[in-house]
Amino acid sequence: MNIQPLLEALDLQENAAQALADDLRGQIAELQGRLREAETHLEHLAITRKTVTALADRLPTQAASADLPEHPDYPRILAVFNQATGPLRARDVCEALDHELLPKNIEGTRAKLKRLVKLGILTEIDTGNFARQQ
Predict the structure, then answer these.
(1) Left (φ > 0), alpha (ψ -120 to 50) or beta: where does 127 sit?
(2) pLDDT tens-digit profile of 62-73?
(3) CA-CA distance, 83 to 77, in Å (whole number)?
(4) Beta-carbon neighbour count of residue 6 at 10 Å?
(5) What b/e string do you get for 56-70 counting C-beta neighbours within 10 Å, with b at 16 or more?
(6) Which pTM does this prediction carry?
(7) For residues 115 and 25, what is the distance between their CA atoms, to the nearest angstrom?
(8) Helix, coil or strand: residue 63
(9) Alpha carbon distance 27, 33 (integer Å)
């Protein structure tokens, strides 16, 4: 019995499988490089957010700090509004402050925003939308 044609067919399949494996290894290496770049970028963004958040507490606000209630979130809330280009909702402010988006945190932030409205620092443009007092 002649097994030569069988071996040749096996060689063809083996070569095709080897080429596919080599191609996939190349794609994996490229994707790993792109993943490393994306992870590095994410790390840099996290460091930047942490730095900006720490510095936001030191930024002067238009309202005198004596007018603000004693809570560390109030200067940070005003810093968020100083950077905002439009009205914000309580959820947006929570996100900017890196608070977990839980109902209790959103409601607590909304209460702080309402207090700032009563103090004349913020205005509620329409229900739930807050902006700096002009």
Answers:
(1) beta
(2) 444 557 888 888
(3) 10
(4) 10
(5) beeeebebeeeebee
(6) 0.52
(7) 59
(8) coil
(9) 10
